[in-house]
Design brief:
This protein is mainly β. It has two domains: about 1-60, Beta Barrel (OB fold (Dihydrolipoamide Acetyltransferase, E2P)); about 70-180, OB fold (Dihydrolipoamide Acetyltransferase, E2P), CATH 2.40.50. Helices cover about 5% and strands about 40% of the residues. It contains one helix and 16 strands. A five-stranded mixed β-barrel has the order 8-9-10-12-11. The protein has a four-stranded mixed beta sheet with strand order 1-6-7-3. The longest helix has 6 residues, at about 1-5. It binds zinc ion (ZN).
Length: about 190
């Protein structure tokens, strides 16, 4: 059901329509009006349990979620130098509704358990990466030392095509270029 997917995480206020009674079982923070329409009782976000077909509204207090030490974030490399990259963090802990405007920084010493001479050997502009938060203030310091962390989408430095993962390297399917990077085991293209 595309409708339930698009409603997942949606911010709502009291009286907002969430669905119809044939679609869902009623959870907390929701009620059915006299026309059979499920509506929100609260200011909050829609939470749909797809397996149980249960819809509820979770109250959201105060400020949006901010990154905490230990969180996994995803972001795009927005700046690079020999020893630093800047990361535009777009999601925290794989929860898309928790979109952010936060910036992360990775120092070359935090890229890999192995020695990295220059950041250009690990990342390039526009790459999508997964990283772990290691400080509690903005800009957040990140690390990609773990096997699950690092690049998840990368582009060929010669022709711009999306690189494919082959063993521990990235290979361009268009021009055959091979690049060594700090690749996550969760790299998205094979
Ligand atoms: Zn290429």
């Amino acid at each position: 059901m595309t409708t339930s997917k698009s409603r997942q995480g949606m911010p709502v206020t009291p009286g907002d329509e969430l669905g119809v009674e044939e679609e869902y079982f009623l959870g907390q923070g929701a009620y059915i009006d006299d026309r059979g329409i499920i509506r929100s009782q609260l200011v909050g976000r829609v939470l749909i349990d797809i397996v149980k077909r249960n819809i509820s509204v979770r109250h959201v207090k105060g400020k949006p979620y901010v990154p905490k030490v230990g969180d996994i974030v995803e972001g795009i490399i927005s700046g690079i130098s020999e020893d630093l990259v800047f990361v535009d963090i777009y999601t925290i802990e794989e929860k898309p509704s928790r979109s952010t405007d936060f910036t992360g920084i990775i120092h070359v010493s935090q890229v890999s358990p192995e020695y990295i001479e220059t950041m250009y050997d690990a990342f390039r502009l526009g790459y999508v990466i997964r990283a772990r938060v290691i400080t509690d203030y903005n800009p957040y310091q990140l690390t990609t030392k773990e096997p699950g962390l690092g690049v998840i989408v990368a582009f060929c430095s010669k022709c711009g095509a999306i690189l494919r993962k082959s063993d521990n390297r990235l290979v361009c399917p268009v021009c055959g270029n091979v690049e060594n990077r700090k690749i996550s085991v969760m790299y998205l293209f094979r």
